[in-house]
């Protein structure tokens, strides 16, 4: 008849195996759901991160230049540099060098800073850089930081999760840096 030849004995084993295959498929789906539920249950008990205040720095914005771009207003600011102090004791632990930073005021009014603060550590005169990116509205910015340094004393900060609060009331920019416990 021009088609495939059908032999009755070929279809019978498939009919017998179909309930077994359906059972294993159902069992596999149930096992997957149980594993997903267990994984979700574990994540519900993850504690919120805890932070401690590490450093404070007070900078003065010396000059500020802006221009209109396609995404909003670009800001370039020259800052004075200043002391990097222990947030708890007030002890000077480093010097932030004079620098140029920038950011973007989006057309919706949100500020996105992109800053690199060069640091000379007081303990050993080694260099470091604090990279800051964040989001802010008005005078306050919440930021993520990454710190890199060659200082043996402060090298543990190279792999530590850091955040910051930055308050900018012209001409002063006050930054408090926090490290995850």
TrEMBL record:
Keyword Signal: yes
Alphabetized UniProt keyword annotations: Signal
Signal peptide: 1-36
Protein's UniProt name: Dirigent protein
Source organism phylogeny: Eukaryota, Fungi, Dikarya, Basidiomycota, Agaricomycotina
